[in-house]
Amino acid sequence: MKDDLIIQIGKRVRNRREALGLTREQLAEQTELSVHFFAEIELGRKCMSARSLYKVAKALNLSADFILFGEEGETKKTKLENMLSRLSKKDREHAEIILENYVMAVTDKN
After folding, report:
1. What is the largest CA-CA distance in the chain?
2. How far apart are the C-alpha atoms of 56 and 63, rounded to whole Å?
3. Are the CB atoms for 37 and 52 separated by under 8 Å?
4. What is the crossing angle of helices 50-60 and 24-31, to 10°?
5. What's the mean per-residue pLDDT of the chain?
6. What is the 3-state secondary structure (H, E, C) of the chain?
7. What's the distance, Cα to Cα, between the start and end of the chain in Å?
8. What CA–CA distance (Å, rounded) separates 14 from 43?
9. Residue 100 pLDDT more than 80?
10. Contact 36/27 with Cβ under 8 angstroms?
11. Whole-angstrom Cα distance, residue 105 to residue 21?
């Protein structure tokens, strides 16, 4: 029974990662976890700690309830937050600088 639960959790993580168009490498970079860790999780060979679950849920924009139990409960993020969450940490930093400059330019006009 425990192994089945771990397999189901791994499938939910993989399905969401793929739905977002993320590679394991990209997800690993966003969460500061290893690619090997995600391979083990997705194949149902490894469990997540609470800290890892938090990082994975945040990166995939899913509730821990959904990851653990398969129940809907996505955290509510704006369209912009969803777009930024798909980027690497470095690319997110660049996007934030660009957006900050855009907002300053637009608000200075008014």
Report:
1. 62
2. 9
3. yes
4. 120
5. 88
6. CHHHHHHHHHHHHHHHHHHCCCCHHHHHHHHCCCHHHHHHHHCCCCCCCHHHHHHHHHHHCCCHHHHHHCCCCCCCCCHHHHHHHCCCHHHHHHHHHHHHHHHHHHHHHC
7. 62
8. 9
9. yes
10. no
11. 32
Structure confidence by residue, pLDDT tens digits, 61-78: 888 988 998 875 445 667
Over residues 23-56, the pLDDT tens digits come to: 999 999 999 999 999 999 999 999 999 999 999 9
Instruction: List Cα–Cα distances, 13 to 56, 94, 107, in angstroms.
Output: 8, 27, 40
Output the pLDDT for position 2.
56
Domains of the chain (ranges; CATH) run: 1-75 (1.10.260.40), 77-110 (no CATH)
